[in-house]
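Troubleshooting: if your tokenizer reports a length mismatch, compare your output against this known-good record of 409 residues.
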Amino acid sequence: MRLPYVLVLLALCRSAAGRTEGMKRLYSDMFGNYSTKIRPVFNHSKHTDVHSRFNLVAITEIDQVRQTLHSNVWMNLTSQDEFLTWKPEDYSGIKFMHPPLTDIWRPKVIVPVSLEDRDVFKDETSPITVYSDGTVTWLPGANFLTNCKLDLTLFPFDVQTCQFQFLPISYFSNELKMVSSLVDVNTQSYTENGEWILSGSRAYITEMTFADSTFSFLYVDIHLERRPMFFVLNVIIPVVVLSFLNIFVFSLPCDCGEKVSYAITCLLSLTVFISIVSELLPKSSDNIPMVTMYLTCLLGISVLSVVATIIIVMKDPAKVNKKEQLSPLFVIPRPCSLSFPGSSRKVMDQVQLDSKTNGSTSNMNPTGVALENQRSSGGYCVTADSLCMVIFTALWMVVSVGFLVHITQ
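Known-good structure output:
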């Protein structure tokens, strides 16, 4: 009953032994007179095509100060080796083999835009496969540190384009040509980045001439779109809200005693917050981000509001002498006036109080004199707070709307 199993086992052992002997003979026949220094073609007037496929694994980091891109990439390079062809039936049915990288010819590909070692594919552990028809498939991979010019004008709603270049340095274009197997980047093994979205890509071949020598280049462009929500929620909205609160300092009456304190507190809060979030802003002087200019304008508006508040308190009519007239700085036509509570509230309250206690309006009261001086101007007086409220609100809206329009274009 066990005889069939024994026969099957013997057949398997004989087949394995035959494949081992076939592999030994194959290596001996293929690499006996093989040289890795010679381009594997019988007719050297013909060029060798290297079909390439760019596989993006991950975008590790984009340094906005140094203008660099860290990425994880592996390539699929396929070429034809005319010296390594055989008939599988002559070698126990072997259709492919995996020789050591040092025993086979490979195109020496460098990355000219790399900021580290340009020969990034010198790793001897990358897999290589040789098929019976002479097709050689090499899968090198590396972590790239390449230059990437960034335009941060529309930060954080910017879209950047980074470029990879691959050059077979050892051969001219009439000897070796790069061929792109895909028109874009292969992203089957790509891991999404938390800050950037891979919105598009392009792979193409071009030839460039240096000192009467023409080389075949493989170019790969990747388009990266920034994810803006983190910056919008944590920087732009809080700063805009703080700057808008600063305008409401003009709604406080001068006699409350907290008018200047409120303005300075808002200014300090905005300054401290901007100094904290400055670490999140790109540090570049080539293209100043619009958001940086916007935050600077908001800070300037806050400073001006503090200065205006101090001047309003100093020019409070209730604190000047009875012989002094209201400064014409705070006088505008009555149709432009607003019934907004401001520095004149103290005067009105004091006059009403005097009227109730004395039974009639006291024209000799200093506050009454001040009120008459205001009314004697022909009804063309408005409180400084109302005027500043209108001016600073309009200024804040112009700056904010201008920033939003420019960003969304």
